[in-house]
Amino acid sequence: MLRHVKNRSVLFILPALVVVAGSTIIPLVTIVNFSVQDVFYGNDSVWVGPKWFIQVLSSKEFYDTLLRTFAFSAIVMAIEVPLGILVALALPRKGKLIPLYIIAIAIPLMIPWVVVGLMWLLIIHPQWGSLGALLSLINLKIDVNNMLMAWSLIVFVDVWHWTSLIILLCYSGLLAIPDMYYQAARIDGASRWNLFRYVELPKIKRVLMIAILLRFLDSFMVYAEPFILTRGGPGKSTVLLSQSLMRTASQQFDLGHSAAISLIYLSIIVLFSWILYKVM
Question: What are the backbone dihedrals phi and psi of residue 101, each rounded to the nearest 5 degrees, phi first?
Fold first, then answer.
């Protein structure tokens, strides 16, 4: 009987599984095909084997963009995760205003990536933007042609946009902790740090792991916001791997190299996601 019920449950999710598998497998097979062939060799495709992978892995530009991407992910996660936990801990656990807090925190997450980039580009404009105008009064300007300012800007915008995700996930985990744990900790005379270390952190560990994984994936694949804010400048100092891939595929229309970069990109994401999962 139990087996029969399980089989029926699989039938309910089978259409969704077919759609998801199809939308994933078909593009993946296409990319794998492009990565081992020269599709623009005359009128026919020619098998080239690992040629595109060797050229990509021999390119200094690839390693430069990869290093910048890792640096960006590490910086934003080092800021967003502790900040998100602190804000979640500071929020009240009881009261009628909890839904209002959740809605207010979630507002940045509701704004599309492109809109966030354009919004902050206008905000920092010295003539049209509120922040830019205020800084102009004290003879300051956010100059995206300065490498330090450009990096600070894209990091700040990402922190503004995505810290809310960490806050919401950690806050939901904290709300799920039963009151009896806090009562027992108070009876034992636990300090605030010990309460967090031995009660709250273990209880939100799984949720925090999901938050870190999601933020790693998002930050490692980010494209729209840095591109809109700095266009990869000054020079190529803020060109991330996603931007390099997009330029290779859409502007240069180099399908072989872009397919190889995509598969390397995917392998790195899967590998580091697995490492983060095991470490957590």
Answer: -60, -45
